[in-house]
Amino acid sequence: MTARLILACLLTTLLGLLALSAHAQDSSAAPGTIAGTILDPNGDALPRATVRLLDQSGAELRRTLTDNQGHFLFDGLPDNQYLLTAALIGFETHTEPVRPGTRVSLVLEVAPVREQVVVTATRTDAPSAQLGASTTVLSSEELEQRQTLSLSDGLRVLPGAAVTRSGGLGSTTSLFIRGGESDYNKVFLDGMVLNDAGGAFDFTNLTTENIEAVEVVRGPQSALFGSDAMASTIQLFTRRGRTETARPRFSFGAEGGNNNTWRTRAGLSGEANLVDYSLHWTRLSTDNREPNNFFHNTSLSANVGLTLGENTSLRLITRGELGRVGTPGQTAFGRPDLDAFLRRRDADVGLSLRNQTTSFWEQRLRYGFAQSRQVSRNLIADSPYVPRFEDRVAECFDFFTGTFGPCLFFDFTSDFLNHQRRHQLSYQSDWRLGSVGHASGQHLVTFAFEWDGEQGFLGDRLGPGTEVNARRDNFGWVFQWQGLWKSVFLTVGGRLEDNESFGTSAVPRVSLAYFLRQGGARLGATKLKFNFGLGIKEPSLLESFSPGPFVVGNPALVPERTRSFDFGVEQRFWFERGKLEVNLFDNRFRNLIGFEITDFTTFGGSFFNVGRTKARGTEVVLELAPGRGLRGRGSYTFLDSQVTESGTVFDPVFEEGNRLLRRPKHSGALELFWDWRRLTVSSTTLFVGRRTDSDFSLLGLTSNEGYVRWDLAWNYRSAHRVTYFGVVENLLNQDYMEVLGFPALKLTFRAGARVEF
Q1: What is the pTM of this model?
Q2: Which residues lie below 8 Å from residue 77, measured CB to CB, with a gap of 6+?
Q3: Do 730 and 598 fall into the same domain?
Q4: Could you tell me where the DSSP H helices lie in 288-430?
Q5: How far apart are CA 394 and CA 43, in angstroms?
Q6: pLDDT tens, position by position, 258-269
Q7: Residue 671: which H helix or E strand, with range?
Q8: From start to end of 142-260, where are the E strands?
Q9: Which domain holds residue 525?
Q10: What are the φ/ψ torsions at residue 490 (nearest 5 degrees)?
Q11: What phi and psi values does residue 17 have, to the nearest 5 degrees?
């Protein structure tokens, strides 16, 4: 069945269902009925909030959970006076008197230590308090308070995460979570996959502009999202237009700092009848620290929604990131390359249709197109050099003299193009059955079907004949059941992945959240959680399809796999002003793909499933909100990682028994936020311990020193719709390298203003 036929069938089916649902009538205000909506202070619906109906003595008569739109319904009631109570962990409980025949709207105030509504952990809207998965949400408010320019800087504070950047802003940036490889994180933008085929994703020029929230679910999620979701799933959600008046809301901001850093941005958002919109543009430029390490980036983003009726909405998402960065190389070891650069053009377009077909049935249809075009160019061959660092000199074996001597490194011209495209189509259907107030509980059943068409061209345009030009079509079927009771929230699911490269594979997942206690005054809710899951990752296009002659693809590669367990406990305390979370995880990675030489005459080779690694550790997160505008969050991660079967013989760093590359044993973060009247101050301190690394320059360096980075930011909101802000990063002016050979930025500062009207 072709992709076009699949799309036609899904569209025809869903449009027919929409026509049927258009005739549904709302009977929530009928006699004998109490119905309503539970909202947060922003006016957003709160799904799975517990709503209880009490008599005048306080005895419970009925209990239910709100649906994805925050709606609830009690029917068949005698005409008496009742008490209605709505509660959700992380929010203040609300109670008010009601009578049948009325419709109510209750707003739950946020508790001092907040919880979030998360989509990525289950593909459905769910409060984070009811999830077994280890989940972190970065809000737009937090990113703005910290004055975060790039998404990768925002991710540095996550427990279990290690971010490495090869130099200044815009340089190659990788993310390692819970010991996984850098291509084990599946990245989404409003449901659209952003990864290259095979899982690679470079966070180089992905900014935080026009982002409402970032959800990060740690652990394998291939049961929900298929290939590449091996160590984590990261989803960015674009802002939606909101306004308190009928007029559009316009914002403009500008800032500047050292290293010739400038940023200008403008936004337009609002609501007009049935349409909401949020449009954003920003331009960022900096020279960074090293010669030829400039970075220029333009971001364009739009989110436009159309309400087609009470139960149906259509949404268009577009985003573009246009960047160029100079790549001087390992300047800590030798002279900079003054002409090499990387130019990147990313474009993403998504269209989604969402329909609440009945009170218990919801459907979603989404099409997405993601394109990434990266040109890495070096057209001038600079003079050779010998890498040096402190008292070390790169040495090579001289076959003529039989001795070791200084090793010359040569520059090679190249014009490498990596142009990848993904067409994505998905259909999802969610059913809600039963009631949490009954012994049998409430049940949410999800079915999803996905098609992913991957296309790519990779090759050096100065050396024709070795280009990779390939495509493959992948299909996935997802089934998930969620059982919801008063104290137990159980999720069981699996996915059947049909990949054109490696065939069919099944991946299951189980997640459990169990409340020992639901809450109280001094000591709040106590939650135990457990997760088990398998993950898979497909080979890259190069690994499967490279034509040679020196690098030959292997079409017989099987997927890389992971098996993961994690256990945890969450305890809320101090009248909801404190929360402690402890997670223990154990990951096993196998079938890792490595390159092996098969012809020692030409040193040509191919790719094989030859590697195994393991990683286990502990994450501790403490959140406190003592009051008077003060909030704090501290995290610590212990990671015990090891190469159990080496996939390469080129570097002793990858030998069996060694720790995994660039993943520190000890790391942590401390965040403090203080709101005082119109002023907000944020402090972020990162600690990254010593970690295994390689200079890849024959210097013999196999370890990278740890470092501490302290950032301080402030925002002042004047009475004239102008916000003044500033940030100092690396306030201690530490000189360190996140990646050996690439000096990180020393002390940097920026300041500016933003006006809104």
Answers
A1: 0.95
A2: 32, 33, 34, 53, 100
A3: yes
A4: none
A5: 62
A6: 999 999 999 999
A7: strand 666-676
A8: 161-165, 173-177, 185-189, 192-193, 211-218, 232-238, 249-257
A9: 237-753
A10: -115, 135
A11: -65, -35
- Taking the chain, what is the end-to-end CA distance rounded to the nearest angstrom? 52
> By three-state DSSP, how is residue 719 classified?
coil
Domain assignment present for residue 25? The answer is no
Q: Would 509 be classed as within a structural domain?
A: yes
From residue 503, how far is each of 231, 538, 539, 552 by CA, in Å? 22, 10, 12, 20
Q: What is the token pair recorded at 394? A: 């790169």
Q: How are beta strands 560-573 and 392-393 bridged, if at all?
A: unpaired
Number of domains in the chain: 3
Q: Final residue of a domain: which of 58, 78, 107?
A: 107
pLDDT, averaged across the chain:
93
Of 203, 117, 155, 187, the closest CA to residue 368 belongs to 187
Residue ranges with strand state E in 332-434: 341-358, 361-378, 388-389, 392-393, 395-398, 403-406, 414-434
Distance CA 665, CA 658 (A): 12
Domain-terminating residue out of 188, 221, 236: 236
CA dist 255 and 263 (Å) reads 5
Tally the residues of the chain: 757
- Confirm whether 441 is domain-assigned: yes
- Asked whether residue 348 falls in the same domain as residue 311, the answer is yes
Same structural domain, 343 and 376: yes
Residue with tokens 């959800």: 215
In one letter, which amino acid is 97? P
Residue 395 sits in the same domain as residue 498: yes
Do residues 301 and 209 lie in contact, with contact meaning Cβ atoms separated by under 8 Å? yes
Q: 638 and 684, same structural domain?
A: yes
pLDDT band per the 50, 70, 90 thresholds, residue 28: very low
How confident is the model at residue 205, as a pLDDT? 87
Q: β-strand 192-193 against 630-645: which pairing, if any?
A: unpaired
Question: CA–CA separation, 43 vs 45, rounded Å?
Answer: 7
> 3-class DSSP state for residue 129?
helix
| Closest CA relative to residue 709, chosen from 651, 661, 667 | 667
CA distance 696 to 113: 45
pLDDT digits (tens, 9 = 90+) for 267-313: 999 998 899 999 999 999 999 999 999 999 999 999 999 999 888 99
For residue 441, report the phi and psi dihedrals to the nearest 5 degrees: 80, 180
- Rg for the chain (alpha carbons), in Å? 27
Q: Is residue 139 part of a domain?
A: yes
